Amino acid sequence: MNRSEFLFAAIDVLFHPFQNYKRYKNLITQKNVPYHDADPAQTGDIIYRASEQPLPVVLNIHGGGFVKGDKKHRVSISEMYADKGWFVYNINYRLSPKHVFPAAVEDCVLAANYLAELKDRYNLDLSRFVVTGDSAGAYLSSYLVALASNPDLHEKIGVPELKVKPTALLSYCGPYDVITALQTKLPFGLTHNIAVSYSGQNFAKDFSDMESYRYAHEISPMNFVNADWCPTMLTYAQKDIFCAGQGELLHQKLSDLGVPVCEAHSTTLIDNHCYHFNFWTKTSKQTMAAAFDFLDKVKNRVFDQN
């Protein structure tokens, strides 16, 4: 286990009880429903409330520095969405360093496409399809939107075509521009360790050889933001120890392009990376209220009228 794996494994263990104490009644859950059969990680949990009406859909992608994390640590937030009337597919995906870019992206594509197979079985409305995730999961969620808005991108990185296109993105504290994210210095060389783990490239310590990497341009979803991007809500921590400035960068670019975008953010050091999981705090409550307001707009097709 390398340094970044150890760090994110510890975070999962330490924070799991605090991030998953909320539970909701009368929800239907089906665990470990596979979206592909090549790897045990390619599964997801289905969570929803029975309804006679077609269900809007959330694909939830966990974080964990690309090297750790598990859908079991995202039960509360998935149930929150389901309690509000969403059909949730809360997925796992192949992790680094065993599986390098674009393996995790490919898995998210496969999971999104699998929703088409679930459509009739669960009466899903894929015209209201939100991709969401935190940290690395936010990156992967935004990458799905990049694939949807750039038809040739899947060929450039060698993943299947995304056939079920997101109609909205809800992204929590993600890294979107890998080059600028690498400027964040973490103790014990963790920035370098995460980059090497995810890319499979043994970069120089100062990343001076980044341009020699095969996917130096393609690894950043920020490079593929365009006017075809779907309506987006971003959350970020102004003092984020992992992803400082990333949410602000994406928000500005979407605003400049005229894409419907809103945001919620924290300002204090204590409300740090993925602060929204601290559901008992005032800042988290404000952010989650804004997130559900955004989801309500998607559900009610407000953006369809723009």
UniProtKB/TrEMBL annotation:
Q: What keywords sit in the KW lines? A: Hydrolase
Domain of life where this protein originates? Bacteria
Q: Which residues form the BD-FAE-like domain?
A: 50-254
Organism, per UniProt?
Answer: Candidatus Stercoripulliclostridium merdipullorum
Gene3D superfamilies referenced in this protein's UniProt entry, alphabetically: alpha/beta hydrolase
Q: Name one Pfam family in it.
A: BD-FAE
Which GO molecular function annotations are given, in alphabetical order? triacylglycerol lipase activity
Q: What is this protein called?
A: Alpha/beta hydrolase
Hydrolase among the record's keywords? yes
The UniProt family comment states: Belongs to the 'GDXG' lipolytic enzyme family.
